[in-house]
Design brief:
With 242 residues, the chain is α/β, with parallel strands linked by helices. It contains six helices and 14 strands.
Amino acid sequence: MKTAIASYLLLALSSTISADPLPQFPSDTIETNDGPLTIYFIGHATIMMKYKNLIIHIDPVSEYSDYKKMPKADLILVTHEHHDHFDIQAITSLTKKGTAVVLNNAARNILRSGQALEQGDSAIIQGITIKAIPAYNTTAGRDKFHPQGRDNGYVLNIGGRNIYLAGDTENTPEMAQLKEIDIAFLPVNQPYTMTPEQFAQAVKDFKPKIVYPYHYGETDLSGLPELLKDVKGTELRIRPMK
């Protein structure tokens, strides 16, 4: 009997472990109003989310994972057409019947499929509300990297949680106006995106409940806790995202 019970427990444990589609990547699980949302930190600006039966890939790039072995996508989001965010091979590997792809106009023109979402516009796709937020450089001389009017960030509403994926941007007036953001991903990779100080100012401006730095490359993040020490109600979470 003990052997049978032990075998059953081992099988149950194995089933639980194998239920995780990406055990090789760090992940966080956030409770929503309609079940858990699991966020997988793939690398750089590449993220995967699992919510109920939906798989969502953000800026999938083959450099950070073998997408032939990744779960197929119900929804793919592309912020812009730079090679570290937009990878046709990865998108092709993730696509199945019914996969929705949302991009900025420039990436849509290259892929020649999917749905381009204009900045400020919203859509409901796979039951998820998606709003395109402008992403651009604001510092003089940096606009050559991400000019105003071209690239997208996105706010997703999943199970009542608002999730902001900023894309490649500095802190902008549009970002400062965001409200009720539960989870934010903000890039820290000067001169292409934000300095740590700009990151901290962005957090102070719109006060997300949880903030993840991403797209940070070799940027030293050790000073972020000090920069955010006076910010109440925001939890800083640093995960491997080089």
